[in-house]
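INFO batch 0412 | record 1 of 1 | parsing
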Amino acid sequence: MYKRLFHLFPVFFSGILFISFPVMAQDTLRVNLSQFIERGLQTSGQVAYEQRAVDLAQNRVNTAQSQRILPRVEFSSQHGVIPGVVSKDPRNLPPGQFYLDPNLENDWEDWAIFTRAELSAIQPIYSWGAIRSAVDAARSGARAAEFQFDAVKAEAELQLYELYYSYLLALEISRILDEADREINRVERELYRMRDEGDPDIKESDIFKFEIFKSEFQVQKVEVREGMDFVRRIWNYALQASPNQVFIPEENFLDPIAFQLQDFNYYLQMAINARPELRGVESGIDALRSGLDAARAQQYPLFFLGITGSYANTPNRPRQSNPFIINNTNYASGGVGFGIRQNLNFSGIRNTVDRAEIEYRRVNDLHKAVTDGITLEINNKYREAVIAEVKVRQTEEALVTARNWVRNEQLNYDIGFGDVEDLLDSVQKELELRLLLKQNVFNLNKKVAALYKAGGIPIQQLSIN
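INFO prediction complete | emitting tokens
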């Protein structure tokens, strides 16, 4: 009878059955890896935050470019109600010569609206390259912001990639443990029945070992159940699912991704050419170089063209005909002139230039530091990917051996030479290796994606291979 008991286990280990889930609602949506990453990026607060940084950098470019044409234009106007004027001079002065009347008085019975408008503008002519350098610095800064955005986006893609495969891993482990739970319950019933019937093939130590195994298995069940709930909640949050929406993976099984591991130098060279962090630093170097040129140009005078215009009109106050006498309530004037502006705080200018030079040298040192960090990172990610690939391959081979072990122990029982303890050990080892294989496959997919990200390669290419 005990021999018949262990014929139950191959049913579990010969294939994977689907874990039972609630019936999918009408609004259940299946998404593949690319769709999951795309939607996750659209709803990511961190990605949106970095996008605003790119927008601000582009705004600074526009601001710098606006300094080329009329960087300073001011307009002001004043309005009010004022009395007119009356002359009692015996000479009967015409209105255009009221300025000759020393006793000119306000006419409090004559009121009119006073309007005055003033316009001034400055157009740079030659700035020793300061404006051009400022624009170049802003453009390089905008490119640096874009590369920083790409780096944040790549990190978010990696996190979403791992989250997608975490769901598949949870599904696989749940399926394995769900079927194993049913088989263990059946084994338990048979074990105790055989013990109660006094079957000589059963030892009390076998019962103890089985009880320990069952207790450990129950802990795994709880861990997997909570892990599945955790992944579902994270999925709903990452995809901003509405209360009546359910997102699930398009795939049902966790398999190793299709990829061809290249040599180490391939990933290193790709990173040097494509990593957004490194290219962002290079853009920062360009920005600070242009900023240094702009700071140096501040040592020299700025040549500019000045434009002014002023107009005032009050109907009850006549305009005066003498060019040296201006009625500030009724006149028109304008002028265009050439000007020179020079900052005479040469000590402050020198300190500004020194600071720009220090920042320029500092960002050059940062380039070397980032390159060193990327090299070390790729070394580490490449090592982890190689090890993960070997683990999957070796675990697959070990699982084949474990299955052969189970069949061999069952065959021994069929002919009457089997041992209960050996059969229990073989079945337990097969279960462990099945779980370990899925965990190793998940780690392989994760490590390869991390290697791609470290090499500056879009990880969504993995879903295309």
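INFO post-check: The longest helix spans residues 346-414.
INFO record closed
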